[in-house]
Amino acid sequence: MVPEVPAGDEPATSNDDAVVGVVVASARLAFVPVRVVGRAPLIGSFLRRRTGALQRTGAVARREATERALSATRSALSGPEVRAIIDETLAGPLPEAVVRSAVEHHLAERIAGSLDERATEEAIQRVIESPAFGLALERALGSPQVRTALTRQSRTFAEEVAATAHNRLVELDSRSGRAAAGNEAGAASRSTAFAVDLVLGQLLFLIGAGLVAIVLSITGPLRPDWLAYTLAGLGWTAAFAVYFISFWALIGQTPGMRLAGLRVVGPRGRAPGVVRAAVRFAGLIVAIIPFFLGLVPILLDARRRGLHDFVAGTTVQYATPSEPPTG
What we know:
Blueprint: H1 15-38, H2 41-77, H3 80-91, H4 94-104, H5 107-114, H6 117-129, H7 131-141, H8 144-175, H9 187-219, H10 225-250, H11 255-260, E1 262-265, H12 274-288, H13 297-300, H14 307-312, E2 315-318
Helix pairs in contact: 8-9, 9-10, 10-12
């Protein structure tokens, strides 16, 4: 049926429209017998079955054609010609033009503005809280490569800090007191090392005092008080004696001297033995008692020796040859 056009709303027609009308009417007349035959019960059922078979055959053919097209596309893209084209394209002005255009048109700001910040944060939070992410992070941080890299970085950083501190102390040594005849350390370096050793020795004493306090809390306090004070003083002296004598005799360096880059040596250039280290510690106590007057020779002697160094026959030297002071 041709739809009727209401009166007054007829569109403008032409000869071309008449030709199109003739073609449509002819096509409808041609398909009338097909529709009549298709409505017959047996023929209609046969045609529907054949149509379904044709549809399935077409679907299979379409999938095979798609797979063949994808395979041909992959082969073409993996060929040397495509790589050569990509290399020539990247070597040309195209990448710079793309980056310049992206900057000029504020592409990054537009992409960031189009993103939902809240949804992005929630997605990132879900990823971080997932067990797979935690397992991957644990494996990555526990890998030997990461441990080796962290150890190397930590050691390098510590070495840089120690080297910087050593150079600064050497510079201060050159500005305080008499110039050294050789590689002997000055007052600034030795004072810094001694201060660090006092802190560490005090910690050692406090640990021992804590253990004694635990025992006394069970057995009862010492009486009289002067005995407790005397034993505390003797314990403090013994803790520092063990600290200094052990390090001097074994490796020629206390932790403070190691930090400042110093070492104590005997007449033969080696670490002093136990006896010489004990004599040096006794001389250090004597040098400190009269308001540190026994340490003044460090500023005046050409080998920068204090009273305890004269008594024990030792000198304090830089562990490595010092750099010449700058400035």
